[in-house]
Amino acid sequence: MNSQSGAKCGQKLASLGLLVLFAVVAFLFYQLPNRWEYALHHRVLNLIAIAVTGAAIALATMIFQVIANNRILTPSILGLDSLYLLIQTLIIFMFGFTTLMSVNQTLLFLVSTSIMVGFALLLYYFLFRRESQNIFFLLLVGIVFGTFFQSMTTFMEVLIDPNEFQVAQDIGVASFNRINQDILWLALVMLVATMLWSLRYWRYFDVLALGREQAINLGVPYQSLAKILLVIVAILISVATALVGPLTFLGLLVMNLTFEFMPTYKHKILIPAAMLISMMTLILGQTLVARVFTFNTTLSIIINFVGGVYFIYLLLRTSKKWQ
Fold it and tell me: 55 partner at 20 to 30 Å CA-CA among 160, 186, 196, 208?
């Protein structure tokens, strides 16, 4: 990357930072009521949750796409979102929604996160025991498990009480308005720790993005590195999902916007840019939901709709290239 391109990327990162700052100010202070203390405190907590979620999903998706060498795939294909919904629905099915509401939320967060990470580790262990096994077999198994978890969730939702069914449906929608403060700080600590752990591997990303064979030829320990990075992905996605709920298409949307906006292949620049774009998307989206739509819709619905349409567009564009 030459100096001119580097300067251009630096300018774009700075502009993204300013846009995020503008979005933060708008989110915190726009239509602030007269009794602003409680409202501002609540918005600050929401903002921290948005930052944690946005950074976690952006980093996890970037790492996952580097390993898979594919800009359409996201970590949701591993089935962790579906597993989270299954855990919550199973608690409602077995013990009732009052138990879900009354149980210690920090404990529930830790249990949900641990189960999701444990599932991912178990999946990796059985699939990567043979050195010849590739990432696409993992994705296929993830799709199968995700479908199975969704089917089990739907089956239990059909059997439970209609009132409990509504609670189960609400859990399946990501929300930044029911954030538990204790969980938020715990998630923040887990995110920072995982990000610091991932920093030592960032230098490999540019080579890994070339593909498995090229990375191995250039001396990268691909198999062991892929296992470690997939564990990092599992932790990040589990933390984000257990904190606010599933945001299926956010990673896809953010990654492709990042690659379109940043004229570089250097991941040390792409990752911060992706995090900023992810945060800005969530902040502006939540501002629209709260101030414009007055909570008549949810942020996840908007993101999934836009992301779904964009996903179809990417598939059509890719298919045209192969014709």
Answer: 208
